[in-house]
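Thread amino acids onto this structure.
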């Protein structure tokens, strides 16, 4: 094994360790912020599983935003209250001068629920099935389980039928993880913007031929992004599986894919922010490599 291969393995070990270190401290960081009676605070933004308690007689001058945590409000908020993925409990003594909106989770008191969960109304259909929004009866666990099962089956099938393209994508990630990750982020942003603009222009020009042709183009772009992301995820799984020293390639890819799914699922379980960071990190690195190698049809391999 030459120096380039050894460097690639070191990058892989560091990246894998970094994912674990990113997820693990999240549980320890989860805390409760309390604005006690008589206290005044500026705008508050909390991430992860951090909860907020505003006691009766306490005041927050500004907007309050929680990403993943829960809010118990008995005091005054001179602004908006936005809770994503957690519970919003508004007591009778609470005064919120702006809007109170909760996405998913649970609502008690005078607050608008958007998403599925206890307290959700007809608007719950809007967010049904979106990751991180369902803390009520309609959990996203079945959706995640089905997606994980399909991705695991894809890992086995692709590794069996097309191992060489997968090896090329994995080689690109291993030898240049930072470059492929950066390129993957750019691809996600550029691809998303291109799809959105194409759909918008097609809708505006629906009466013209160019408007009709825009939808197939947008669908093709979206299809490429999805396929490249899946291939990239499987390639990342093959790199993780290679650490297990399993001789059969399909088995290593499948187990590696399952490990990455477990890490991503654990990250989302602990909070929205770590879930987004871990998932985007894995997808970006794999997507960048898959795009650079043209879905594994170009480039070197092991």
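Threaded sequence (302 positions):
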């Amino acid at each position: 094994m030459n120096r380039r291969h050894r460097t690639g393995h070191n990058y892989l070990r560091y990246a894998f360790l970094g994912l674990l270190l990113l997820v693990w401290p999240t549980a320890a960081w989860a805390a409760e912020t309390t604005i006690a009676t008589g206290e005044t605070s500026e705008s508050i933004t909390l991430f992860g599983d951090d909860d907020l308690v505003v006691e009766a007689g306490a005041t927050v001058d500004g907007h309050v935003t929680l990403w993943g945590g829960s809010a118990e409000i008995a005091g005054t908020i001179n602004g908006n209250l936005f809770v994503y993925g957690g519970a919003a409990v508004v007591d009778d003594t609470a005064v919120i001068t702006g809007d109170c909106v909760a996405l998913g989770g649970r609502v008690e008191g005078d607050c608008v629920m958007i998403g599925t969960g206890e307290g959700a109304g007809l608007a719950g259909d809007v967010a049904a099935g979106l990751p991180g929004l369902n803390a009520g009866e309609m959990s996203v666990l079945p959706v995640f389980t089905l997606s994980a099962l399909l991705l695991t089956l894809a890992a086995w099938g692709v590794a069996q039928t097309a191992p060489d393209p997968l090896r090329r994508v994995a080689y690109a990630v291993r030898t240049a993880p930072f470059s492929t990750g950066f390129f993957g982020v750019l691809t996600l942003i550029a691809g998303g913007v291109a799809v959105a603009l194409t759909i918008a222009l097609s809708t505006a020009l629906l009466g013209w031929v160019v408007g009709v042709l825009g939808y197939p183009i947008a669908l093709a772009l979206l299809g490429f992004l999805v396929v490249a992301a899946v291939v990239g995820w499987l390639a990342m799984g093959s790199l993780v599986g290679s650490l297990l020293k399993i001789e059969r390639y399909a088995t290593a890819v499948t187990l590696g894919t399952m490990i990455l799914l477990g890490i991503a699922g654990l990250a989302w379980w602990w909070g929205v922010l770590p879930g987004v960071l871990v998932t985007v990190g894995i997808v970006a690195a794999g997507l960048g490599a898959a795009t650079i190698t043209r879905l594994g049809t170009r480039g070197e391999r092991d």
